[in-house]
Structure formats: C-alpha cells, structure tokens
Amino acid sequence: MAGFVAILDFGAQYSQLIARRTRELGTYCEILPYDTPWSALAPRTPQAIVLTGGPESTLVPGAPGLDRAILRAGVPVLGICYGMQRIARDLGGELIKLDHAEYGPATLSVEAPASPLFANVPTQSRVWMSHGDSVVRLPNGFSALASTARCAVAAMGDVQHRIYGVQFHPEVVHTEHGRTIFANFLQRIAQVPADWEMGSFVERSIAEIRARAGDGKAICALSGGVDSTVAATLVARALGERLTCVFVDHGLLRKGEAEQVVEMLREIAHLNVRAVDARKRFLEALSGIEDPERKRVVIGHEFIRIFEAQARAIEGVRFLVQGTLYPDVIESKTPHSKAGHKIKSHHNVGGLPEEMHLELIEPLRMLFKDEVRALGRALGLPEKIVRRQPFPGPGLAVRVIGDVTEERLRILRDADAIVREEIDNAPLDPHPWQYFAVLTPVRSVGVMGDGRTYANLVAVRAITSEDGMTADWARLPPELLERISTRIVNEVPGVNRVAYDITSKPPATVEWE
Ligand code: XMP
C-alpha cells in the first residue's frame, strides 16, 4: 500500500511545514480540514494522522473539534500543540489556561527516554513553544513523556493505541531535534512507507486531474512565472490540447518579458498559448490609483473579465487551472480556519466570480516554491524556466509606488533591467532569491554635471529566502551595489538617487506594496 499521511488542519501557521517535513521523509500527505469525518478518511487508508496546531483554545465553547472516531480507528495519531490539547480533551484529560502564554524557545526534558518518539533525541534539547493552555491531567492510558520548566506535559503518549501529543512544534527549525521526533513518529511508530518522490507526485496528479476533468476542457492563466508554467505543464500532461493557456500582457511586465515569455511557453514548454494584448486596458483602469490594495483589486478584476471573455470563446470550458502555491494561500487566508489575518490580497488566489461556473484545478496548492521548482524539473522543464524569480501577479504596478503611468513604468523597467543584469552576472553565494527595483514616489535633489536635478528615487531590493514567507536582505558586495547605483543614475533618465532596502520580512514584506 502506498504511503499516505492525513494532516488535519486546525488553522496553524505551520500546517504546511508539517506537510513539507512529511514529504521530506518520503511520504505522500495531504492537508485536510480539521472536521474531515473518519468515513471520508477511511477509504483512503491513511497510515498516520497528524493534528496540527491552531489559533483557538479547546477551553472555549465551539472550539474546532475532530471526528472522535479518528481517535478510535487504530491509526497512529500525533497531535501537535492544539492537536495534542484536542486529544487530551476528547479522551478525558484536563487542561487549564496558563496565566501567561508560553511562547518561544524552551528546554525540553525527556522523561521517557525509552519512548520511540524520543529515540536518538538527547534528554535535554531546545524546542519551540507557542501555547496558552496546558494539559494538567492525562487521559487514561497516557503517560507524560517530556516536560519543560513551564509545561509539565510537553509530550504525552498512549503506547498501546499509538496516540501521541507534543505541546511544542517539531516542524519548525527552531526545535533542535524536531525532524528526528517527527521521523520517529512517522517511521518508527506509524511505520509509513517512504515511497514518495516528485515522479510519483507527477503521476498521482495527472491521474487525479484526468479522473476529475474527464473529457472536460480547461483554461489556464499563464504569467510565464514558475508557478503557472509548472501548473499548466502538469495539467497539459493530463489533458493535452484540451488545456488552453491564456497569457495576458497587462503591460506591467519587466523589460522584454512579454515576448520572451510567449516564445518560451510555446517553444519550450509546448503549451497551447493564446496571447492577449491588454496593455492599454490595464493602464487606463489603473489611472490615478495610488492605493496598493486598490491596484490589486482593479488588476484582479480586469484579469477576470479578460478570462471570462476567453473562456466564453472556447466551447465547453469547465475548469480553470491556477498555479496557487501554499504561501499564497496562507498569506491570503488561513485555510480551514476563521482566524488568520489578511496581509496582501494576492490577486491570483480566489476571486473567481461564481457566475463563471468554472471549477478550480490548483495542482500546486500544497507545495512550497522550491518544491515547485523540483516538480518543474521532474516535468522536464529547462532551468531557464524553473529558476525564474518569483514575480507578483500584479507585476510592476506594485513596484511603481503611487500612480502607475507609462513614463513611470519605463523608468522602473530600465532601472530594474540593470539590477537584474548586474546581480545575474555576479558570482554570489547564496544567490539572492529575488531582486528588483522599486520606483518610489520620492523625489530628491541631486547634482549632475553643473546642474541641479530634482528627480526620482529608485530603491533596490534583493532578498534571500526559502519560500517568500520570511526573507532577509541580501548582503550584496559594496562594489556590486556601487555598479548598480552608478549605472542606474547614468543610464536611466529621471533617476538621480538609489537606495538599498535593508529590511527583513517580517517586519517588512518582500514587495513594497
Ligand atoms: P510579500 O510582498 O507578500 O511577497 O512579502 C511574498 C512573495 O510573493 C510575491 N507577491 C505576489 N505574488 N501576486 C503574486 O502572485 C501578488 O499580488 C503578490 N504580492 C507579492 C512577492 O514577489 C514575493 O515573492
């Protein structure tokens, strides 16, 4: 039987990290809503179930619960944070609300070193805690396996039924031996097979898409970015010519990009592409809009209208393919949870008008960027496509701060081309994850030749990151920064000053808008 782990999501920030750790251990998994009934899970024969953390407290009436049949199904269960508290409550244990929530690093003392959960884990190690409630009485059959100074039950287990709970977060890197603990649960305790790799993800996805789409037709919004290209290539493997890709040139792309992208999609990725020139339409719609959220909304709206028209032109289209990734999902909303704060409304997530009657196919919804790149390679896409930097759907509209005009787009494009060329050609290790120019609304005084200038300030942003969810500013060599600055000021009319952004995310975001 092929390995399958079900992750029931109570709305934690870290749910996808749990999925990622599972995949790193070579087992296929899916994140499912916390209230998925056992009757829906059972036919899929999960060999282990993980309950995630979540923002709620089990002590509050109406807190998210799970189908208790899951805890009696004989399948090994690991509850993390809220997941552990849920197990404790549902099986008759007791919890209290702490006077002060425990948040951040703590030292874990393993009290049951013989427990398979803590095999190869030292008796003292650093873990990451984040909780407001604590288990004070264990359910029958459970014993305490570990503690911290402030949490008497930092891990618990019922050996006979193979049900475990950890109050800390083994999935985050701040938990020193988190991977070992997680591997102990999946491999020693649950003995799930490690039989998953990208090749099998491709096969599984193709089979699922075929099963779902039947002989239906699909349409895909292609931006030329890694995500939509990989998603379209995968779906094209399943549906062939029944997938039509639409590339909308919204006029907010980087220098020379529109032409390159269309050629690349047709010639290299072998996709069936319709190119729509909508440059004028977007510029008009954006005219006079300075607020970044408004820009995203307007762009999203125009996009959707163009798709509607394209979809209508193809008879019998039933599906819309989107290259939505997990970080897009989590930053737009916390899945399966009412909690979670909107940070930026990435226009390519959701937003599809009901009346279009198109069903979404989002084959990358569970993946992180680097996993999408690996998938692209597994699909045989060249490095030129697979290594493209992330680029926001609303394009340069969110990098021209303030009013978006043709002239300001021209300035930004020229400055950005220099930033990219210089960084592309520099032998940097690690190579920044994303780098670009931002046109600020600031003008400042300068002197060029004998004359005073009063011109635009361009900011340069270069970051290192793994997934875009957190980022650090890249420590670029001063000589490189100097070359970038000198070239921009000399070669781009309208710019007389260049600044380098030295803020990480958080507290800043990657894009300025
Ligand atoms: P932020 O600015 O939210 O960016 O820290 C995180 C990553 O997402 C990209 N980004 C977007 N991508 N539509 C997209 O498709 C958007 O509206 C959008 N805004 C930001 C950003 O470039 C970075 O890689």
What secondary-structure arrangement, pairings included, does this model have?
Blueprint: E1 5-9, H1 15-24, E2 29-33, H2 38-41, E3 48-51, E4 77-80, H3 82-90, E5 94-110, E6 124-137, E7 143-148, E8 151-158, E9 163-166, H4 178-189, H5 198-213, E10 217-222, H6 226-239, E11 243-249, H7 257-267, E12 273-277, H8 279-286, H9 292-313, E13 317-321, H10 326-332, E14 359-361, H11 369-378, H12 383-386, H13 406-424, E15 434-448, E16 451-465, E17 471-473, H14 478-491, E18 495-500
Parallel strand pairs: 1-2, 1-3, 3-4, 4-9, 10-11, 10-13, 11-12, 13-14, 16-18
Antiparallel strand pairs: 5-6, 5-7, 7-8, 8-9, 15-16, 16-17
Helix pairs in contact: 5-6, 6-11, 8-9, 13-14
The chain binds xanthosine-5'-monophosphate (XMP).
Xanthosine-5'-monophosphate binds next to loops.
Taking all Cα atoms into account, the compactness measure Rg is 25 Å
Spell out the CATH superfamily of the largest domain. Answer: HUPs
Number of domains in the coordinates? 3
How does the helix and strand content classify structurally?
alpha/beta
Q: What proportion of the residues is helical, as a percent range? A: 25-40%
Count the beta strands: 18
Count up the helices: 14
CATH topology (level 3) name of the largest domain: Rossmann fold
* Strand line-up of the largest beta sheet: 2-1-3-4-9-8-7-5-6
Q: Low-confidence parts lasting 5 or more residues at pLDDT below 50? A: 333-343
Beta percentage is: 25-35%
Query: What shape does the CA trace take?
Result: globular
Reported for the largest beta sheet, the result is: 9 strands, mixed
CATH class type of the largest domain: Alpha Beta
Distance between the termini: 47 Å
On the 0 to 100 scale, the average pLDDT is: 91
Which second-level CATH architecture of the largest domain applies? 3-Layer(aba) Sandwich
Small molecules bound: xanthosine-5'-monophosphate
